[in-house]
Specification:
The complex is a heterodimer. Chain A is mostly helical. Helix content of chain A is 77%, strand content 0%. The longest helix of chain A is centred in the last third of the chain and has 32 residues, at 218-249. The N and C termini of chain A lie far apart (38 Å). The radius of gyration of chain B is 24 Å and the shape is globular. In chain B, helix 5 packs antiparallel against helix 6 (162-174). Chain B is an alpha/beta fold. Chain B folds into 2 domains: 6-248, P-loop containing nucleotide triphosphate hydrolases (Rossmann fold); 253-309, no CATH class. Classes of the chains: A mainly alpha, B alpha/beta. Chain A binds chain B through residues 3, 6-7, 10, 14-15, 17-21, 82-84, 86-87, 89-93, 247-248, 250-255, and chain B through 15, 61-67, 70, 73-77, 93, 95-96, 98-99, 101-103, 105, 107-108, 111, 113-116, 120, 124, 127-130, 158, 184.
C-alpha cells in the first residue's frame, strides 16, 4: 500500500512537471470549467437577486467542477490510439495509476487558476459558508472527484472500439451540464426532472457537493450520498468490464 | 532439460475487423447490419527459445511479427494456442514477471514525460521496479558507461535527439536488468552511427548479462549482427526457423563476385558482368565460383576481387517475394 501511494505520488509529481510547460493550455482548460457556472451564477442571481443560496451554490460549484475536472478522453484515449498504453501494460504497477496521476496533476493545475476566482467571488458576493456545511461537503466532494474520474475513464475506454471517443464524451459532458446542476440548480428544475436529476449520476458528479456546501436538508444529502455510492459501484464495475473487454480488442500500433 | 525462456504451441491470433462495400448505400446498410471479416494474424505458430538466445523475427509488413511480440510481452491475448514466457502466462502480467521483461520500441523509445530529465525518468523507473539504491547505482553506472549517456542525465527528455532518446530508452528498459528483452525495430529512424552504437551496445549487454533477446527489424544488418537464429514469419505462419546463413543458402544458390580490373583490362569473352561504379559484378552459381575466379585471374589483369553472398536485403526481398520457403 505504501509502495502504491509512493508510485501514485510519483505519477502526480511527474505529470505536474510535465504539464508545467503547457500553462496556457491549462489556463484555457480552467476557463472552460469555470465559465459555465460563472454564467449560471450571473443568470440565476439576476432571476433571484435576494438569494444568498444561489451565490453560495454557484461559488461552491465553480470550486467543485474546477477541482474534479477530468480529461481522460484526451489523455487516456490518446494512449490507446497511439499505442503508448503498451508501456503501462508491461510495468509492474496497476495500469490505472498513470491516468489517475495525470488526472490529479491536471486538477491541481486547474485549481491553481480557479482558487483566486472562487475567493474573489466569495468576497465580492458576500457568500458565507458554515464550517458544518463545509465539513459535510468535503467527503461528498471527494466522492464526486472519484466518480467523475471513473465516469470519464469509462467513456474514454470506448477508444478501444471507436475513434470517435470525443463525440461520446461530449454527449456525457452535455448531460452532466444539463442534469448535473450546472445550467440550472437541480431544485429549480420542474418536479419530475428534478427527481430524475437527483438520482442521475450527473448530479452526484456536479451539483451535490455544491448543494451540501451551500446548505441543504440532511435527507437530501443522505439520499445524494446513497446515489453517489451506488453510481460509483456501478461505474467501477462497468470500468472493469470495459477494461477487460477492451484489452482483448487492443491492437495498439504496428504490423 | 531446463525450461525454455519462451514456449509457444499452436499459437494463433484472429482479429475481427468490420468491413463494408463502397458507396453511401453500403455505409447506411452497415449501420444496422454490420459485416465482419476474420483476419488471421498468426496461424499455429510453434516457437521455443532457450534462455540466453538471441532470435530475430523477420517478415514483410503485416506478416504478424509485431503481433507475436506483443503476445509474448503480454500486451495481447492470443485467440488460440498456448504460450509460456519465463514459465508464466504473459497475459497474466504478474508484477514479478513484468520485472523480468522489457519492451523497447524503436518508434517510441522513450515515453517519459517530456519535461522530466533523463535522471528523473531513471529514478521513476527505480521506484516502479523496486530497485534498492545500491542496485540502482551499480546498474546505472554500468549503463552510463556502456551507452555513453553521462551528459544526457540532466537534460530534459523533450530536447533529446532520436538517437539520444534511444540510448536513454535503453537505459530505462535495462536499468532493472531484465532477463528477457523484446526489441521492436530498435534502430528505426536512427542515423548510421546511432544504429551502429545501438547494435554494439545490445551485443555487449547480451554477452555481459546472458539476457534473452527477441528482435523484430526490417533492417537486416540488425538481425545479422545480433541474432544467430531467425524466425521468418509470413502471413501469420513461421515458414523458417534456423540459421540466417542457412536461410540465405536455401534461397540463393549463387554468389556475388566483385572484380576491379586494371585501367586497360577488359572482361574475358563469355563472362557476363555488370559494370557498377568502376567495378564489375557477377552472379555465379556456387558450384562454378572456383572456375570463374580461376579464369578471371588467368585471362585478365585483376586488381582486386571479392566473393560474397548476395546482399542480405536482396535475399530477404527474394524470400518475401517468393513466400514459399519450406518450413524447417
Amino acid at each position: 500500500m505504501i509502495r502504491l501511494a509512493r508510485l501514485f505520488w510519483l505519477h502526480v509529481v511527474r505529470e505536474v512537471l510535465s504539464w508545467s510547460g503547457s500553462w496556457w493550455f491549462i489556463f484555457a482548460l480552467a476557463g472552460g470549467q469555470v465559465l459555465p457556472p460563472l454564467i449560471g451564477l450571473a443568470i440565476w442571481k439576476a432571476v433571484f437577486p435576494d438569494s444568498d443560496h444561489i451565490s453560495e451554490y454557484y461559488i461552491a460549484l465553480i470550486f467543485t467542477v474546477a477541482t474534479t475536472a477530468s480529461y481522460e478522453n484526451h489523455t487516456f484515449s490518446e494512449r490507446i490510439y497511439k499505442g503508448t498504453l503498451s508501456e503501462d501494460l508491461v510495468r509492474p504497477q496497476p495500469p490505472i495509476l498513470a491516468p489517475l496521476g495525470e488526472n490529479t496533476a491536471i486538477r491541481l493545475w486547474i485549481a491553481m487558476f480557479a482558487f483566486p476566482i472562487v475567493l474573489l467571488l466569495a468576497v465580492g458576493t458576500g457568500a458565507e459558508f458554515t464550517a458544518a456545511n463545509l465539513l459535510i461537503a468535503f467527503p461528498i466532494w471527494l466522492l464526486t472527484g472519484i466518480l467523475r474520474f471513473v465516469f470519464t475513464l469509462c467513456l474514454a475506454m470506448t477508444a478501444f472500439w471507436t475513434e470517435r471517443v470525443h463525440a461520446i464524451t461530449a454527449f456525457g459532458t452535455t448531460l452532466m451540464y444539463l442534469l448535473g446542476g450546472n445550467a440550472v440548480p437541480v431544485d429549480l428544475l420542474p418536479e419530475g426532472w428534478s427527481a430524475l436529476a437527483r438520482w442521475s449520476p450527473f448530479y452526484s458528479m456536479v451539483g451535490l457537493p455544491a448543494d451540501a456546501a451551500a446548505g441543504i436538508s440532511v435527507d437530501v444529502v443522505l439520499n445524494g450520498v446513497v446515489a453517489q455510492v451506488v453510481w460509483l459501484a456501478l461505474l467501477c464495475w462497468l470500468g472493469v468490464v470495459l477494461w477487460r473487454r477492451g484489452l482483448m480488442r487492443y491492437t495498439a500500433v504496428g504490423g | 532439460m531446463s525450461a525454455p525462456c519462451i514456449e509457444a504451441t499452436e499459437l494463433s491470433m484472429v482479429y475481427r475487423v468490420r468491413v463494408r462495400e463502397t458507396g453511401l448505400g453500403a455505409a447506411v446498410r452497415s449501420l444496422w447490419r454490420p459485416e465482419y471479416k476474420s483476419v488471421q494474424a498468426l496461424d499455429s505458430i510453434n516457437l521455443r527459445i532457450e534462455a540466453g538466445e538471441s532470435v530475430g523475427l523477420i517478415g514483410p509488413n503485416g506478416a504478424g511479427k509485431t503481433t507475436l511480440m506483443k503476445i509474448l510481452a503480454g500486451i495481447l491475448k492470443p485467440t488460440g494456442g498456448r504460450v509460456r514466457v519465463l514459465g508464466q502466462d504473459p497475459f497474466d502480467r504478474r508484477p514479478e514477471h513484468l520485472r523480468r521483461i522489457a519492451l523497447v520500441r524503436g518508434s517510441q523509445p522513450l515515453t517519459s514525460a517530456p519535461e522530466l530529465t533523463v535522471m528523473d525518468s531513471l529514478r521513476y523507473q527505480q521506484l516502479v521496479f523496486d530497485l534498492t539504491e545500491p542496485e540502482f547505482r551499480r546498474n546505472m553506472d554500468e549503463l552510463v558507461d556502456l551507452l555513453g549517456i553521462g551528459d544526457l542525465l540532466n537534460r530534459q527528455v523533450r530536447v533529446l535527439s532520436l538517437g539520444e532518446r534511444m540510448r536513454a530508452g535503453l537505459a530505462m528498459a535495462l536499468l532493472y536488468r531484465p532477463a528477457l528483452l523484446f526489441l521492436d525495430e530498435p534502430t528505426i529512424g536512427l542515423d548510421v552511427s546511432a544504429a551502429v552504437q545501438t547494435r554494439s551496445f545490445l551485443r555487449q549487454y547480451v554477452a555481459r548479462t546472458g539476457a534473452t533477446l527477441l528482435l523484430t527489424s526490417h533492417y537486416m544488418t540488425d538481425v545479422a549482427e545480433l541474432c544467430p537464429r531467425v524466425v521468418l514469419i509470413n502471413r501469420g505462419r513461421a515458414v523458417y526457423d534456423g540459421d540466417l546463413a542457412e536461410l540465405t543458402r536455401r534461397v540463393r544458390h549463387d554468389k556475388l563476385i566483385e572484380v576491379w580490373l586494371a585501367p586497360d583490362a577488359t572482361m574475358p569473352a563469355g563472362i557476363n558482368a555488370a559494370s557498377v561504379n568502376g567495378h564489375y559484378e557477377l552472379s555465379v552459381a556456387r558450384s562454378e565460383v572456383a572456375a570463374v575466379v580461376s579464369r578471371l585471374l588467368a585471362d585478365t589483369a585483376v586488381l582486386d576481387l571479392s566473393v560474397k553472398d548476395a546482399p542480405l536485403d536482396v535475399v530477404i526481398d527474394e524470400i518475401y517475394r517468393r513466400s514459399e520457403v519450406e518450413t524447417r
